[in-house]
Amino acid sequence: MGFKNIITKTLIALVATIAINYISSKAYSRLDITQDKRYTLSEASKKTIATTEEPIYIDVFLTGDMPSEFKRLQTEVKTLLDEFTEINDYIIISYVNPKEENPDINVLTTEMEKFGMPPLRVDVQENGKTSQEVIFPWAVINYNKKIEKVSLIKTNSNNPIDRINNSVQHLEYAFASAFKRITGKKEKKIGLLLGNDELESKYVYDFLSSLESSYRIIPFDLDSVNTKPIQTLKNLEQLDLIIAAKPQKAFTDKQKYALDQYTINGGKSLWLIDNVHVELDSISQHGETLALGRDLNLTDLFFQYGFRVNPVLVKDAYSANILTLDKNNQPNQTPWFYNPVVIPKIKHSIVNNINPVRFEFANTIDLLKQGINIKKTPLLQSSEYSATVGMPKIISTKEIELFKQKDIVKSLNKKDLTLAALLEGNFTSAYKHRVKPFEYDNHKDEHNSSKMIIIADGDVIKNQFSKGKPLPLGFDRNTNQTFGNKEFLLNSVNYLLDDTGLMNVRNKNVKIPFLDVERIANEKQKWQLINIILPLLLLVIFGFLFNYFRKRKYS
Fold it and tell me: In 130, 262, 419, 528, which residue has its Cα 20 to 30 A from 220's Cα atom?
């Protein structure tokens, strides 16, 4: 009877084991027990990742030897990509150490920079010594002969722990948005306004190149409204969004009316306005220039919508450096108060977790009581140490010496000056109860839903050049810093076009626990001794007690 009982129990255990293995292979699931749910993908990300049924290759270059905090980032990247592969079997991941492919770090750096993937140089402290490590925090996605680069690091903090936290928080959005760009269809149309001396195409090359992966870009000459007003307005209304990139010539009444009706009919717009004229070439050649106010004939239009762009210049203690020559004609980096560097202060999906945005001779925006049915949100504001300069004004490089004075901050007595704002809601036509520049049968006075973003600096969208080739938008060749201009503008476009599914991922709040690096360095020997001696001591105590009680039991 006992033997049969053993056989029965063994068979039951064997069948149960086989059943559990079978069920687990068919019903696989993962459990995220982290407090911030950082390993739980959003529905928007899942939908984006699951859409393709063709191979997607991801090469990750964040591999090899690196500081401990970057090891943590490496782990988070791998964990996230593992989640991706659980959703889509067509995702194939490779981890490539570029240093093994090319040990010459200078040659490797040059090659990676050519592909738009500059390295990150970080200081490493170990055993009281400081060394510099070069890492490549990038990934490349290949799909159907198309390539998307993904930056794995956010450089908006000098604190290494904050930098890694921000980077981890950004990972899901960075990869999911890259997936969407590389696999999505171009359905919405964006018009780049021409006809009012806007920036040349070469200066907006990088930004437009970034948009072209997701949207159809159409140059739109607004001058045609002067000869074919009705047809121009109809063509304008076929666009989902218009971008005015630093117009420098005043708009005619017909152009304004066409833009007004476009807005009232629900059209979205991104305005980059300079209401002050500054000759940069004159500053470079002569060390000074006369800054003058610029009238674009848009004041009444903007006033009706509830804002005003002031013809003043902003000075800010938090500013980008420019290259100057010292007494020995050696290049020197000096803060230039007319180039504010703005760190977003509000929690909004457009500006959440982006790098600081670099401005150049920015104006200010007043948000008015006019337009009570329009919600107005300041997106970017100056620091608590800022000021405005009225026009006309001589701008001179001699002011750099003034900026170096310790009491200069006392003159920067303004704060939170609005440099970029979002307006959304019910817009009212600026031509309501007014004579129209041309007859339009479908004229509307109001619309229930429209949006626009106004940026009081036309150069925010402008990319720099190196050896005749455009650099990535936001990259400053003089300081080798990358600012958040591109990300800010791309987020603005996505928000205006209601492409917000993935943008909500940016609001995920992730906090990565780190060990205290300073304490580790100071207490390294102590903990090494504890880890060696304590186990041996416990073993000796256990042996002594074991023998003691054994002797007592059998004595």
Answer: 419
